[in-house]
Amino acid sequence: MLAPVQMTTKPNSPAAQTAVINPRPYIVENGEIVLRFHKNQWRAWDSRKRIVAILAGTQGGKTSFGPAWFFREMQERGPGDYLVAAPTYPLLGLKTIPEYIRYFQTVTGVARYVGSPTKKLIVTPAGQRMLFGKEYNDETAVFFGHAQDPDSLESMTAKAAHADECGQKKFKLGSYEAIMRRLSINEGRLLITTTPYYLGWLKTKIHDPGLHGSDPTIDLVRFRSIDNPAFPRSEWERARQDLPAWKFDMFYRAIFTRPAGLIYDNFDEDKHVVDDFEIPAHWPRFMGQDYGGVNTAAVYLAQNPKDGRFYLYREYWEGGRTANQHVEAMLRGEPGQPTTYGGAFSEGQWRNEFNAAGLLVKRPLVSEVEVGINRVYGLIANDRLRIFRSCGHTRDQMSAYSRELDEAGEPTENIEDKNSYHLLDALRYIGTYLNRQAVPQRPQQSTSLIMTG
Fold it and tell me: What is the rounded CA–CA span in Å between residue 406 and residue 243?
């Protein structure tokens, strides 16, 4: 039987340097797990903050670090439920789950993997004795969930969590928020391991506060692919030569960059996001809506009469409600009915349902998606739009809304995952009304801009 995890290898010891030959960050010697981290993994290991965020280049040693960290966390936190999440089930099966099976089942033997009906590692009685010093009647398990649907992460009270590759667009802000809710009772810790993929919630909620020290609960550990001794120098040089600068910066240097194809490339968090304030009751109010049985969304804007600037101060995104229930929730707290536009031209029945429920919704002025995008773009370009800091989902979508790229990495006319941006569709519908005058044309291609904080 293996002894509990011990840090028997120092960062710069000869054993640690053999990671160049064997990239796994641990080995088994004389019945003990010997950790063989590189110096940046040791930094993450030594952190005792609530959120430990490893932001690293590809193959920097992120996912493989997770199981050892999780094993120690279980020793310290005791029996109960634990959660590991990735953006999608395919990514879980390809990368994350195999690493956990290797550590918990193959190497230590403390747990057995069960793939159906729920993917989880169940700690065996012998494993409980190893981890906790004795057996317990209640089951201890590591559950694996995916983040495309935040509701799939809402069914447990977890003692610790690992969010792997949560920088991907499919790892929604709502999923991060769901994980933090699962950890709240136990004040459990969260390990984040990812490469930056876009300028979204990971940057605004984790990277920036961790970098500037504005959130004392976050420890940001950022390093390049080449900082892993196992990463070949030749591969680093090949990527630097072959890839666009923005892609190399994000995927190999772990630096947030404005990627090619970003549609609202003129949206700047530092300039266009403001702290919430109480909207005066006399300011004109506007609402844009987008419809769906699961994803009915709305954005609320108010206009300052003095300078004409619009403030997006509220967002709504709910499903499973009748039109009457939506209207009641949408108007709750509002001083009156806002001027409202919503839905595609073909969604007249949705508008009729809302009209019958007591909220007058008008058909958007134009049907073309690109015209609507141009009008919202013009609001930003002409410094006529601000977004409240509390509207995190809208901000996240603004930073992710992108064109598909062709094989050469150039933007195409197609919108990536077009049906996922319900709040931005709502903004586009109301934007066609708010910006009825001519607007400047968007540039054909975004310019990469390093966002290092």
Answer: 14
